[in-house]
Amino acid sequence: MITKEVLDTYYNNTFDIERFKANDPCGTVYLLMEHTTRQLDIEIGALLVAMISWGNRKVIVPTALHMLRDEMKWHPADFILNGAYECSYRNAKNNCVYRTLNVDTFKAVCKSLHNALQGHETMESLFQGMSTKQAVGIICKWLEPAKIGTMDKSACKRVCMFVRWMTRKTTPDLGIWRTRKQSDLYAVMDTHVLQLTQSLLKNKRPTWKACEELTNIFKSWDADDPLKYDIALMTMADNPLQNK
From CA 177, how far away is CA 139, in angstroms rounded? Predict the structure, then answer.
């Protein structure tokens, strides 16, 4: 059974930061940060990496690396704002970027970002004064061509993960959104997390209600850093402790 004590044990004693970064899509964003310090580069790169973060991480990571390095040349902001995405993925096999995400859909997402970010130095400034929930809703609309889900139909897992990367102050998260509070983040809820936390939740499907319910449980355990329990759940999935 999942309890605060169990997850604290995973987070404090089992979680290996460097191993996590080496195997998780967020590690490709750290590679991006070795090539650029521009905040909008990091924000756009991280968002598009999060967008393709479903399925097998062993496939996600090289796909994300190809996108950032080979298609965007380590400068996602110029790639989007200058319209370079229109000429991207010319050699994509079967017109595919990743799994069901085809080149045309990817370009539609890029155009959506191009339109949304005109006149803004950073995403962080665009969301100034908004709640985290409002920001998640807006980002979901930006990514709508890719059909990653909206609050009325899903838990917005990949968007919540992106916002966690940007906001949470502790590695493996990047914490570059200094004006936002990590205490206001939402749980990264997918079917696997839902399965692990069934004993805690009244909502038994991966919906926004379930996301809010799990978030409130995390906040009751740690009001300042509730999403450390997201990290703990991922660690549990990768390194299940043996029952004694």
Answer: 15
| Measured distance CA(156)–CA(136) in Å, rounded | 8
Q: What confidence tens digit (pLDDT) does each residue in 154-208 have?
A: 999 999 999 999 999 999 999 999 999 999 999 999 888 999 999 999 999 999 9
Angle at alpha carbon of residue 149, lines to 153 and 88, rounded to 5° = 165
d(CA 64, CA 25): 7
pLDDT band for position 239 (cuts 50, 70, 90): low
Q: How many CB atoms lie within 10 A of CB 158?
A: 25
Q: What gap in Å lies between CA 4 and CA 231, rounded to an integer?
A: 13
One-letter amino acid of 150: T
3-state secondary structure of 70: helix
Bridge partners, 96 (sequence order): 102
Q: Which phi and psi (to 5°) does residue 237 adopt? A: -65, -35
The single-letter code of the amino acid at 9 is: T
Alpha helices in the chain (DSSP H): 4-9, 17-23, 26-33, 39-51, 57-65, 76-81, 103-117, 123-126, 132-142, 157-167, 191-196, 208-221, 228-238
pTM: predicted TM-score of the whole model, two decimal places: 0.95
3-state secondary structure at position 71: helix
Q: Of 78, 186, 70, which Cα lies nearest the Cα of 132?
A: 186
Among candidates 124, 122, 141, which has minimal Cα distance to 132?
A: 124
Nearest by Cα to 80 from 123, 102, 35, 113: 113
